[in-house]
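Fold it.
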Amino acid sequence: MSTTNRREFTGLRAEGIAANLARVRERIAGAGGDPAVVEICAAVKYVAAGELPALADGGIELVGENRAQHLAAKQAEHGDRFVWDFIGALQSRKVREIAGAVRLIHSVASDSALRRLEQHPASEILIEVNVAGEAGKAGIAPAGLADFVAGAPVAVTGLMTMPPAVARPDDNRRHFARLAELAAEHGLARLSMGTTQDFEVAVAEGATIVRLGSVLYEGASAPS
């Protein structure tokens, strides 16, 4: 695997992506999830536009971008090859650019974003919840979730969380379980939780979307 100082993945090969994707699906099944139901959202923040065809040819169908300007650039080249989600921190001033360009926004977490969504509706949104109560971290507090859902001007279909970085994946189990409880309390079906570090634990606790990066890309590059 070759990277730049920005940690971009380069030289990706479709066969390498396909092999990694198959292993991820096996791990999802091993964690008690249905690989045909749990969506794998490939995080492409560090994948340049020119590398995206390898992802499509390797079987990736859903991609998530973190930055509005990169979303637009990558969609201009490869928009019809994927389903697109927005998974980065949502700045209210960027809602206009993002709302009509993606299937889901995973990270709605501010009143200002809701106001902009009223002007520029998205088809569906997920609300980001700070289940761990980390200071300075984005996300609605669980106690404020009901009011936030009620104030959303567009369809809320699920929840998302970014739990703490941990030494052991199982340390985040309680946070994933809590998000699943909150989703059930509010009748929300989608649960976007789990990344490369802990997606198996998230799947075991009910994740319907996992946001994966390096586990899909490591070892998938042509030999240098």
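The longest strand covers residues 39-43.
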